[in-house]
Amino acid sequence: MTKSPGLYEPKKEHKFSFGLWTVGNRGRDPFGDFVREALPPDDIVALLGEVGAWGVNFHDNDLVPIDATVGERNRIVASFRKACERHHVVVPMATVNAFFDPVFRDGAYTSNDPAVRAYALQKVLRAMDLGAELGAKIFVVWSGRDGVETDACRDPLEAIKRYREALNYMARYSADRGYGYKFALEAKPNEPRANIYFPTTGHYLAFINTLDDHERFGVNPEVAHEHMAGLNCTHALALAWDAGKLFHLDLNDQMAGCYDQDFRFGSYNLKSAFFVVKFLEDVGYQGSRHFDAHAYRTEDYEGVKDFARGCMRTYLILKEKARLWKQDKQIQQILREIGTPGAVSPEARSFSRAHAAKLLQHAFDRGALAKKRLPYERLDQLTVDLLLGAH
After folding, report:
1. Regarding beta strands 195-196 and 147-148, do their DSSP bridges make them parallel or antiparallel, or are they unpaired?
2. Cα–Cα distance between 179 and 133 in angstroms, integer?
């Protein structure tokens, strides 16, 4: 099949975005120091414009140093805004760094010290101001040290209460300032060794209903974080979508059983990445396709460009594969067969007293149902063939 020109080239309508912390990552890990020089935020925007990205996201201190004066802050923001305009890059999302500084060694919103909790809240309000100033409509909340290394340090019920109070405050501040933020809560099992509160997307979906303005809160599932917990990211996305809470997402890759790797999207679990893309395209997800990933530590900034292009190209290749999957005659025939009843039976979609009586009286042929062929091996291999270009 001949591919149309530019089929895998990113366009603004694809809404591909990267964080300053992603393409600006300097290749450091727990066992080795930086391998790339720091790249100023304006230069990161230029890089993203060059590779064809639509958006750039940031933590507050990715853009403005934590100890910057008001004057320095304003100069940095003005320059960054001009860089975004010059390179036709928008700011769809902002977040706050409430984990890196030593003041957050016992957490931010759940810290045992009320002064630390108040400082964390001040910091997040200023980050919300910054994001709104640059046009962000999504505010992601990820609390990298709001957890414990020993449960002896804090009553978990008190931690949940403190976290709820902080989120309620954020929502009220956004409403008072007219920012209109939608808050996306990001789960993660650990970072790097403590147990974080709310480690999975499911935890947050349950917790959101206890918030005062729960309609303003959704989730930000991340591929790598779901894999770190040994979970299926497509299932997390589906659960969030079904609840009307898929406000944002992070695309990357990860080996199960390892700490945060943030590999290029689709570089490790290609079939899992395919089903993530297929799901997003099938449901018509309209938000950012945000890549929270890092280039290999072997790369210079030309390699970082290759990494960013690779994230977007892989998504677009898998998007095309998803289109072909839905048109494949063999795959669709199998789907029709497995969706056909194995025997005559009453529909079981909605309850009524009459329906329940009919259902209770029906005699099912368990033997016939058990013998119905479900060719999932064939279906999966056809999927693999398609992904590998052999079908």
Report:
1. antiparallel
2. 9
Strand partners, 18: 56, 291
Q: Which of 42, 62, 146, 292 is catalytic?
A: 62
Whole-number Å distance between alpha carbons of 48 and 54: 8
Written as six digits, the tokens of 386 are 């398609």
pLDDT digits 0-9 by tens, 11-44 = 999 999 999 999 999 999 889 999 999 999 999 9
Instruction: Tell me which of 3.40.50.2000, 3.40.50.620, 3.20.20.150, 3.30.300.130 is the CATH number of domain 12-327.
Output: 3.20.20.150
User: Which of 94, 152, 150 has the alpha carbon at shortest distance from 123?
Assistant: 94
Catalytic residue among 59, 225, 227, 248: 59
Contact 123, 98 (CB under 8 A): yes
Q: For residue 228, give every residue at least 6 positions away whose Cβ sits within 8 Å of its Cβ, in sequence order, or none.
A: 188, 189, 190, 254, 256, 257, 258, 259, 260
Does residue 59 have an active-site annotation? yes
Q: Please report the sign of the dihedral spanned by the C-alpha atoms of residue 57, residue 61, residue 63, residue 64.
A: positive
Average of pLDDT values for 72-81? Answer: 98
Furthest C-alpha separation in the chain: 78
Q: Is the pLDDT of residue 2 over 60?
A: no
* Chain centre distance of CA 127: 20
Could you give the CA distance from residue 279 to residue 235 in angstroms, rounded to a whole number?
A: 9
Tokens representing residue 319 in the block: 């998007």
Q: Which strand (E) or helix (H) includes residue 167?
A: helix 156-177
Rounded to whole angstroms, how far apart are CA atoms 20 and 58? 5
Question: Which amino acid, 182?
Answer: K
Computed from CA positions of residues 99, 104, 106, 107, in that sequence, does the dihedral angle turn out positive or negative? negative
DSSP-assigned beta bridge partners for residue 30:
none
Indicate yes or no: pTM above 0.90.
yes
| Beta carbons of 112 and 153 less than 8 angstroms apart | yes
Looking up tokens 């802050």, which residue turns up?
A: 73
Q: Please give the Cα distance from 26 to 303 (Å, whole number).
A: 12
